[in-house]
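@channel sequence for tomorrow's demo:
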Amino acid sequence: MSDKALMLYIKAQNKLNNAQAKAEAFLHDEEGDTNFLSVIILLGIALALAAVFIGFKDQILSWFHTNADGFLGTSGGDSNNTFGAGG
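structure tokens (generated this afternoon):
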């Protein structure tokens, strides 16, 4: 084997060893794993809420309108409003 071929072989072997070490570290290290899991859990919660709102849209809107009408009054502007300025 010539000197150039030997040096090329050694470089290739070093790069292969480095790549194997990095692959091993990637598969076994757990840094940043909790952030990934948190994002997945939050996405799952958001999708579940979206499914509930889509599935029960009519019931939720009717409940909201009933409670909003009771809270705001059906006339829209109550003259006995104690929160108004000057009343």
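heads up for whoever presents: The chain has a mean pLDDT of 81.
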